[in-house]
Design a protein that fits this description.
By secondary structure, the protein is of the alpha/beta class. It has helices at 11-14, 19-30, 60-73, 99-112, 127-138, 164-174, 180-189, 202-213, 228-247, 251-254, 257-269, 275-287, 293-300, 317-322, 325-333, 349-353, 413-419, 456-459, 520-529, 540-548, and strands spanning 43-48, 77-80, 117-122, 142-146, 153-155, 158-160, 378-382, 385-391, 402-410, 432-435, 467-470, 482-487, 504-508, 513-516, 572-573, 580-581. The protein is 34% helix and 13% strand. The protein has an 8-stranded mixed sheet.
Length: 584
C-alpha cells in the first residue's frame, strides 16, 4: 500500500517551530528522550493490558520490550502507555461490565496522544475486543499482538483444559465422585503458567478472530505464551507497526464487511466461544459495519468444524499452532471465504495463507472430512427470544437439540445458589433450567453464569446435561445444551422474565426456534404485572453502564459509541502558545 505525502500524525505535536512545538518536544526531553522529530521517525504507541491481577497478561512486559525492539529496528520511536486491564477470573461481578470502559480508555488514549500507529497487546477474554473496539473508533493505524495460551495443567499424566475439564471435575466433585485430596491435587496442578486459557475458550477464539480479521501478523494467534517464537512475533509486530504508520493503513481499511464474514467463518471452523458473537457485533458496530445475529447464523451455517480442539474436540490450542495454526485453518476455508480482504500486512488473506497447509490432519481436518458438520453455532429465536439467542450446538448433547420440557425458573443468581441443590427442588432430567436477570442490565454486565449447574440430585443419578436457558453468557471453555444471550433480557421486560415454573419450553435447533408454549393473552397479563428490578448502581460508571448499554444482539456496547466518528477530535488551539494539539 502506497504512502501519501500528508506527513505523520505526530508532526502536529512536534513539527512546528513555535512555542507549542517547543513545549511538546521539551515534554519528551524531560522524560529522557532525545529529540525525535524532523527525521521521519514515526511514533508508535505500545498498549499492553498488563496487570498483576490478570495472570493471562502477566508476561506482557517482555512482549512490550520485544515490540519496542522491533519498532526501533524499523526506524520508529516506541512510547508505551497503560490502560486498564480486565481479568475474567478475579473481576467481579464480571469483566464484561468493564469491557466498554477499557474500550473508551484505549480509544481516547489513542486520540489524545501523538502516535502515528499503535500496537495493542491483549490476551484475557475482554482485553482483546476492548482494544479492537477502541482502535476501530480512533481509526489510527493499529496492529494487534495476542498473548498466547498458557502451559496446560497436567493432572495424573493427563493434559487438562483450563475450564473445560475443570467443569467436568467440578460436576464429579458435586456428585461425590472426587475426594478432598483429589480436589486439592487438581487445584495445585491448575494454573501452570502465565498465558490465556489453553482450549478454544474466549481468549483463544478472539486470538483466532484477530488473525482472521487481518489485524495481526499472520501465524501468531496460537503461539504459546512461553514459547520464544511469541517474543519473535512481538518484535515482528513492532516492525510492522512502523510500516503501517508510514503507509497510513488504518483499521477502517481492514475491518470491512467481508473481513467480518471471514472472522465468523474462522470462529465456526475452530468451534469457538459463544462470547465471540457479542464482541464481533460490538467491534463491527464501531467499524460502521452492519453485522447482525442473522448474518452470523447465515455464515456459520455453511462452515464445518475443522479444529479438533476442546471443548468440541480433543486437543488444545497449542496443538493447533503446531499443526499449522490459524493460517492452516484459513487456507482450508479459502473456497468458502473471501481471500481478497486486506490484512495489516498490506497483502490479502489469500496471499498470507498460501502454502500453509495443516501438518496434522487429526488436529486440523480437511474441509472434505471435518471434525463436525456445519452448524456448530446456531442462532435461535421465537416467543422466548424475539431478538435471538445463541447455542453452541457442536458442544451440546445431540438428543437435546430438539426438546420440550417444563421450566424450572431461577429469579437471579442468588436464587439459583439457594435452590439448585435443594433435595426438594421439583426438577427432572427433562426439565428446562432457566436463569434470568443475568443479562447486560440484570447481571449487571452479563456475567458468565449461563452454564447452570445440574442439580446435585440429578448429578448423583448420572445426569450430565440438560437444556439450560439464560440471558447470561457462558465461559468459552464451557459445554452442554446451553442457550445464551437471550434478547431482550428479562431485566428490560423480555419474555424470559415472564416464564413461570411448569411452562413448557420448546427448543428446536434445526428449525432455529426457541419458544415458550404460553398463549399471548396470558403473556400479556403477566407483562402487565411485571416490574423491573431495582438498579444495582445509582452513581459512577455502573450507572452510566445501565443507562447506555445495548442488548446482546447489538453487542452490549454503549449506544453513544456505535459507529466511527471521523471528526477532528482533540484539535485544541493553544492560544498564545501557538500551534495545534492533537487531531487527525
Amino acid at each position: 500500500m502506497d504512502s501519501d505525502d500528508a506527513g505523520l500524525r505526530s508532526d502536529e505535536w512536534f513539527g512546528e517551530a513555535d512555542l507549542g512545538g517547543f513545549i511538546h518536544r521539551a515534554a519528551l526531553r524531560a522524560a529522557g528522550f532525545e529529540r525525535v522529530v524532523g527525521d521521519g521517525r514515526p511514533i508508535v504507541g505500545v498498549c499492553p493490558a498488563w496487570s498483576e491481577f490478570v495472570n493471562c497478561n502477566m508476561h506482557f512486559r517482555a512482549l512490550s520490550a520485544a515490540v519496542k525492539r522491533g519498532v526501533l529496528a524499523a526506524g520508529g520511536m516506541p512510547l508505551e502507555f497503560p490502560t486498564i486491564s480486565l481479568g475474567e477470573s478475579l473481576m467481579k461481578p464480571s469483566a464484561m461490565l468493564f469491557r466498554n470502559l477499557m474500550a473508551m480508555d484505549v480509544e481516547e488514549s489513542i486520540r489524545a496522544y501523538p502516535m502515528d500507529s499503535v500496537v495493542l497487546i491483549g490476551a484475557c477474554d475482554k482485553t482483546v475486543p476492548a482494544q479492537l473496539m477502541g482502535a476501530a473508533s480512533a481509526d489510527v493505524p493499529a496492529i494487534m499482538l495476542t498473548g498466547g495460551p498458557a502451559e496446560p495443567t497436567i493432572y495424573r499424566g493427563e493434559r487438562l483444559g483450563s475450564g473445560t475439564d475443570l467443569w467436568r471435575y467440578a460436576d464429579d466433585r458435586r456428585a461425590g465422585l472426587l475426594s478432598d485430596a483429589e480436589w486439592e491435587e487438581i487445584e495445585a496442578a491448575a494454573g501452570a503458567s502465565v498465558g490465556h486459557c489453553v482450549e478454544m475458550g474466549t481468549a483463544s477464539t478472539m486470538a483466532a478472530i484477530v488473525e482472521a480479521l487481518g489485524m495481526s501478523v499472520p501465524g501468531t494467534a496460537a503461539i504459546p505464551a512461553n514459547d520464544a517464537r511469541r517474543i519473535a512475533a512481538a518484535e515482528a509486530t513492532g516492525r510492522r507497526a512502523v510500516a503501517i504508520a508510514r503507509e497510513k493503513l488504518r483499521p477502517s481499511q481492514i475491518l470491512t464487511e467481508a473481513a467480518f464474514d471471514n472472522a465468523i467463518a474462522v470462529w465456526a471452523a475452530v468451534g469457538g466461544s459463544t462470547n465471540a458473537a457479542i464482541h464481533l457485533l460490538a467491534i463491527a458496530g464501531r467499524a460502521g459495519v452492519s453485522l447482525t445475529l442473522r448474518r452470523i447464523d447465515e455464515v456459520a451455517a455453511t462452515i464445518p468444524v475443522l479444529a479438533n480442539v476442546r471443548p468440541i474436540g480433543t486437543y488444545l490450542f497449542e496443538d493447533l499452532y503446531r499443526a499449522g495454526g490459524v493460517r492452516a485453518v484459513i487456507s482450508e476455508l479459502l473456497p468458502l471465504i473471501d481471500g481478497s480482504t486486506t490484512t495489516v500486512m498490506g497483502s490479502t488473506v489469500a496471499e498470507e495463507v498460501a502454502h500453509h497447509e495443516s501438518s496434522d490432519r487429526d488436529v486440523i481436518a480437511p474441509l472434505a472430512e471435518p471434525v463436525a458438520p456445519a452448524g456448530g453455532l446456531v442462532v435461535v429465536s421465537g416467543s422466548l427470544a424475539p431478538n435471538g439467542a445463541l447455542l453452541k450446538s457442536g458442544a451440546a448433547s445431540p438428543e437435546l437439540l430438539s426438546h420440550r420440557g417444563p421450566a424450572v425458573v431461577f429469579q437471579d443468581i442468588a436464587d439459583l445458589g439457594r435452590r439448585i441443590d435443594d433435595p426438594g427442588l421439583e426438577v427432572g432430567p427433562d426439565s428446562v433450567l432457566i436463569l434470568r436477570n443475568a443479562g447486560p442490565r440484570g447481571g449487571p454486565g452479563m456475567p458468565e453464569w449461563g452454564m447452570l449447574p445440574i442439580p446435585e440430585k440429578l448429578l448423583r443419578a448420572g445426569v450430565r446435561d440438560m437444556v439450560r436457558i439464560s440471558d447470561a453468557r457462558m465461559s468459552g471453555t464451557g459445554f452442554g445444551t446451553v442457550v445464551l444471550h437471550v434478547a431482550p433480557e428479562a431485566a428490560v421486560g423480555g419474555p424470559l422474565g415472564l416464564v413461570t415454573d411448569g411452562d413448557v419450553v420448546a427448543l428446536d435447533a434445526a428449525r432455529r426456534t426457541l419458544d415458550v408454549e404460553v398463549e399471548d393473552r396470558e403473556l400479556d397479563r403477566r407483562r402487565d404485572q411485571w416490574a423491573p428490578p431495582e438498579p444495582p448502581y445509582r452513581r459512577g460508571y455502573g450507572a452510566m453502564f445501565l443507562d447506555h448499554v445495548l442488548q446482546a444482539d447489538e453487542g452490549c456496547d454503549f449506544d453513544f459509541l456505535r459507529g466511527r466518528d471521523d471528526g477532528d477530535h482533540g484539535a485544541v488551539p493553544l492560544g498564545l502558545l501557538g500551534g495545534w494539539q492533537g487531531g487527525w
